[in-house]
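URGENT: need a sanity check before tomorrow's submission.

F., can you look over the SprB-like repeat protein record below? I want to be sure the sequence and structure line up before it goes out.
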Amino acid sequence: MKKNYLLLFLFTLLLTNSYGQDLGCVSVNAITPLPSCNPGDCRTIVASPPLNSIPKQTTSYALAQTPFVWRSPDNVNDITSITSDDRWSGIIPLRGKQTVPFNFCFYGEKYSECLIGDNGAVTFSILGHPDSPGGLYRPSFLVPAESGSGWAFNNPIPSGPGYGPPYKNAIMMLQDLNIANGPIASTTINYFTVGTYPCRAFVANWQDVPLFGSCGASGLQSYQIVLFESTNVIEIHVRRRTSCAAWNGGNGLLGIQNADGSSAYSPSSPNRNTGTWQVLDTQSEAWRFTPNGPAVPVTYEWTEAGSPGTVIGTGPTLTVCPTVTTSYCVKATFGSCDAAIPPITATDCATVRVNEDEIGFTPKDIKHCTTDTDPRHFNIGINTDVVLGTFVPGPPDNLNPYDFEINYYDDLTNAQNDLSPINTDFYDPANTAAPIWYDLVAPATDKTLYIKILDIISNCSYIIPFKVILRDCDAQEIAPLIICDINNDLQENFDLNDELPAINAAIAAETGNPLPSDYSITFHESEADADDVTTALTAAEVLSHPGVPGDIIYVRAESIADPTNYFVYFFDLDLVPTPTATISGTTQICENSTATITFTGTPGATIEYTDETGATRTIVLVDDGTGTNTGTASITTPVAVAGNSYSYTLVSGSLTTNGVTCTQPLTGTAVVTVGGLPTAQITTADTPICEGIGMTVDVQGTPGAIVTYT
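Structure tokens as predicted:
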């Protein structure tokens, strides 16, 4: 089992919303303290976040750029009543279609309703609204008719008192729009609320809205104003804003302003206060306005997890002295800008662990066979990686070697008192595979040793026993794994899975159980490994294991239900030659004679060939007795007929050894041609000559024929 300790004593309030922006919800972390080594030891749990992570009052703001996000509603949106130019909407509840009020603090005041203006603004300055004394802007449903939202501006913010624009008590991405000036299907001014209380976000959405008048040809404008519940953070996301000098100087304004125009925030680098700046589709941007006044008040209540109704502490910390592992929970209650807003709470729990029995992973008993080389000489250092989980491939939750010290002892008392460790070198976290040797003294056949793990962080230590064991290994031999030697080079890659039928038969024979699938199978290169499961071949090594005749593979068949019940088998690797053969005997013979065709190749191989009639025949090569591992066989052609030829062609060769048959195609042809009987005659006429005079005698006949004459 792995223990994780958070070493950072800086604690974070996580603010989350459905968009992953971490702005719409408060939470508290109770940080798990270090474990208690002994019952009754005291530990302190801390729940106080840094001051810059506690929500702050909205009397001032910090402004920063933030990643652009285009938001969509959870369900359906609400369309505003705006269908014509320079209009305010009706009164819009921030809760949207939900029933729980959505309270939002802006410049130190509480609001739950707003107006949306068609020229890119959300305002809380609502004429006649109880939350907005002195409100300026008339909702669309009031009588007399609305006064209009206004469009002309050329001053930056803060803009001082007056109706505006720039508007008061407002969040603005301001420019002169006209929703009726050539809209397209996606053109809309709407709003929606996403998330659940108290972690919601209100979104006012201007999507593909045209500019006023002839400036409509300059492109459609899209942006969103987002208000986050609980944290009172504001974001303005601009997907597209174009400037048209032909109207109102092409001015645009991004920012927030208070009720009397005396305080405002707008980006200065790049400048987004009143001016002709633009944001193209490829340069979409967003700005975040984070409350930056005094921190809101936070109170804490602590309880034991098993007794949630009993408060055992208040304040940002709790000191406890448990005698058993116990969980403690904190409830943090956050204030706001207005006492009328219901307090928001967040909870978290931490567990103080007491006197854990074990850390890390269980060490292995290390076993040697009496037939091993130097069987009493044990490398116990292999257990360092085992207890840390740092062997390859190891568990995903392995321990960090640099957080611990590891030593080995042959006596429990020595381990408890850090006396006479077996390892003479200091533990090196950079070399956890370093060997540590222990010699088992004869005549003992086993010895209990102890590995001591010191947690450097908590200073708690854990002592875990394991054994070194010397045993008579009794692996059972099963059928060899035999494959064809493709290149006859006495080496091949074996698929060890091909031995599974023999392994399953051995399991069934030993257990009488016809279901060997109840056992897990691993392959090993030594009997000790198979007996101890120290090192097993990987799946890739099992699928393609290089071997030569005489190699031995060991198998561990372990019961899935009871891992202490297992069998160890071994089998040899062997190769069967792939047969080869050649054919010879190509010649020319006379009619009425015969020729011999000879096959030469692997002794014992069955050679398939076609004869002079085209029929397929077989012949077996017999060792020629020369000691050169050569087999031969021959056939005699039929009595030759003049003008004929006799062709013999190799087809394939096969060889069966220990029940394994290796076959491969062969090539080669021998051709016997037949000629007629030779003829010859003397063509020189009878001619008398004088004594002592020579003459030439001409002989004509079959070219190449040898003529005998008298």
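My own read: DSSP finds five helices and 46 strands in the chain. The radius of gyration is 48 Å. If you see anything odd, call me.
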